[in-house]
Amino acid sequence: MGDPSPKDVDLVTELLNMTTFDDYKVYSGMLPVGDTTKELHYVLVETASGNESDPLVLWFNGGPGCSSMLAFMQEHGPWVMDSGEETFKKNDYSWNTDANMLYIEMPAGVGFSYCNSTVESCDYNDTSSADQNLLALNAWFERFPEYKT
Asked: What is the mean pLDDT of residues 17-34?
């Protein structure tokens, strides 16, 4: 039967202290940044509406250098954790109600994104961050070609 695809490997089936997500799929994984040892972390939360024509929204938090998990976990993801709390609750105002939400942590070295600092520099600026984003996004579209249109 062969090895599972990276997309299948990235499928999230449960998260501690979070409600189930039977109405949509969640993916989390790493995206290569070209021919380097750098990888950018992503989370895709598919639309809850089930409408295949819902848009894909690409989200980067400000910076570069601020984790996009802030938006995913405290602002407009399907669950939120209020300041001072230790558990997540369902977000009734989640943006995945009518959109597919793709969160990417950038550049390498921020959040769960990876930079092997013994081999490559983790220094970044707007230009290098944009270059990393493009390489990672191209890798993401190879993994999820259904979103190319």
From this structure: 82
